[in-house]
Write a structure and sequence with these properties.
Keywords: Signal. It comes from Streptacidiphilus jiangxiensis. This is Calcium-binding protein. The chain has helices at about 5-25, 80-85, 105-110, 140-155, 185, 210-220, 255-265, 290-305, and strands spanning about 55, 75-80, 90-95, 120-125, 160-165, 175, 180, 190-195, 200, 205, 230-235, 275. With about 350 residues, the chain is of the alpha/beta class. The strands form three sheets. An eight-stranded parallel beta sheet has the order 1-12-11-8-5-4-3-2. Strand 6 and strand 7 form a beta hairpin. The radius of gyration is 19 Å and the shape is globular.
């Protein structure tokens, strides 16, 4: 690990452990731990209610039609200039980069067509990278920082974004492995996606406690809530298996609305939010082929910024069918020695 990651290794474990104990005692997400300050100035966060919503994977059909627009998604995952040119009016682009090689000629050539486009909201640098190569090819924080700095300089006013991989287990998430981690100060990235995916077969429903525990883990390595992009689970079934070997469950409409309500307790005004997923992978059910009632929940959220759960599923209601009460988990052990089942979030192009 490069830069501030090396300096943070010795003290990070103790800091994270102390933070977790404090958060469990207060049953809330506390102020973030500050581990350094980014050397670049990111774009200012947009005030007011959420107006940008993105759904990952296969946003465009063969005729370059923008499918997620049918449900009110207005931030598109774009990987080609043809897709950028095909964006409907009012839809912004999140440019998929996915390299982590640092600023090389190939990187510069890849991003050059987008640098000055008024349609571009920002750049999706990496999806669930691995800071030390234990689960995937290593993606050094310094490479991400170099790419983010380049884009801040050459495409001013746009955001840089990535989604962090849980390096622990769902019951005890951690964004640290063998002393390596990603933070604002060692990546210079503006926005970070956090994806608890709380609806799982072994739970017989959704454990919404995972939202707060994942946020605590992100704060423990320095990410403030103002940088967090909520990721809503919108998939289930198919060939994917979680870290317990069980399938994920497609949320019901009420469960999806409750998930959004819990997220709003912690991150009420994100710069954007993300639904995973629009396109299908391994024959799972996603928003492109989900029941109409679930699609309607996301359409309502995208139109108004809220999605109302049924009365039986109000935020924090104990014993609600299929949803656990919303309090931080007290689980502290991380089974980092167990084989990891990593969900590949992006469809191959």
């Amino acid at each position: 690990m490069q830069g501030t990651a090396l300096a943070g290794r010795a003290s990070l474990t103790a800091v994270a452990a102390a933070l977790l104990v404090l958060m469990v005692q207060t049953a809330s997400v506390s102020d973030p731990v500050q581990i350094g300050t980014p050397t670049t100035t990111p774009p200012a966060a947009r005030p007011g209610t959420v107006t940008l919503h993105e759904a990952s994977n296969t946003n465009f059909d063969a005729a370059l039609g923008f499918g997620p627009g049918a449900l009110g998604f207005n931030l598109a995952e774009v990987a080609t200039t043809a897709e950028l040119d095909a964006l409907p009016s009012g839809v912004k682009a999140l440019i998929w980069v996915g390299r982590c090689d640092g600023v090389t000629p190939a990187f510069e050539n890849a991003v050059q067509p987008y640098l000055d486009s008024p349609k571009v909201f920002g750049y999706y640098l990496m999806d669930e990278p691995d800071p030390n190569g234990r689960w995937k090819p290593e993606c050094p924080a310094g490479n991400l920082a170099a790419e983010s700095d380049y884009l801040h300089q050459h495409s001013p006013g746009r955001h840089t974004f990535f989604l962090m991989m849980d390096l622990g287990m769902a019951a005890a998430p951690s964004y640290v492995n063998r002393g390596d981690f990603y933070s604002p100060s060692n990546t210079h990235i503006d926005l970070v996606g956090i994806d608890p995916y709380p609806c799982r077969a072994e739970l017989h429903g959704c454990d919404l406690n995972q939202i707060s525990t994942f946020l605590q883990a992100a704060q423990a390595v320095g990410w403030p809530l103002s940088s967090v992009v909520p990721v809503y689970q919108a998939f289930g079934g198919g060939g994917w298996r979680d870290d317990e070997g069980a399938p994920w469950l497609l949320p019901t409409p009420d469960q999806a609305a409750q998930m959004m309500a819990v997220w709003r307790q912690f991150v009420p005004d994100p710069v954007f939010d993300q639904a995973y997923s629009w396109g299908t992978q391994k024959n799972d059910t996603t928003l492109v082929n989900a029941p109409a009632a679930l699609r309607a929940v996301f359409a309502q959220h995208n139109a108004s910024g809220t999605a109302q759960p049924a009365p039986s599923l109000v935020a924090g209601a104990a014993g609600a069918q299929g949803v656990r009460s919303v309090l931080p988990s007290t689980t502290a052990a991380v089974r980092s020695s167990s084989p990891r089942s990593v969900r590949r979030r992006r469809s191959a192009r």
